[in-house]
Amino acid sequence: MRFLKYGIAVAALAAASLSLNAAAASDDPVADRKAVMQSVGAAAGLGGGMLKGQIEYTPAAGKAAISTMNAAAHTFGGLFPDGSDMADNSTAAPAIWDDRAGFDAELAKFAAATGAAAKASGKEGPADLDAFKAVFGPVLGTCKSCHEGFRVK
Fold it and tell me: Which of 7, 62, 70, 133 has a CA positioned 20 to 30 A from the CA of residue 53?
């Protein structure tokens, strides 16, 4: 059963990564940021599942979760141009535009945490679950921090 969960999580992460790549090619910033957040959600689900022991940890899966988060961190900020808050399909919090400096600071924290995690994970990914916890925990902390101030509840 654990391998089935692992397989489903990796498949979801792969699909989300394709969404992340597709987002880079679109002219719709709202659709793009939704696609990027889906990839982040899949990576957080995979990483969180491994942290909780619901999914068996492997270095490759750890690396995939970290890499997806890191790619999103370096893509996401450009997906909130002025005026995109008024789009009919946007659910982004007005605070993103009202406190752009605060939002940009949260994105910088996210990029720093994912960059550090990517660097620490090397080519193969964190060697074991403890090493993964040490680098992925701070990444999830930045997600929480940003969602507290910049996510519609």
Answer: 70
Q: Give the integer Cα–Cα distance in Å for 13 and 15.
A: 5
| Cα 118 to Cα 67: distance, rounded to the nearest angstrom | 6
Per DSSP, the three-state class of 50 is helix
What is the homologous superfamily of the domain 2-150 according to CATH? Cytochrome c/b562 (1.20.120.10)
pLDDT digits (tens, 9 = 90+) for 26-71: 789 999 999 999 999 999 999 999 999 999 999 999 999 999 999 9
What's the CA gap between 21 and 120, in Å, rounded? Answer: 24
How far is it, in rounded angstroms, from Cα 139 to Cα 153?
Answer: 21
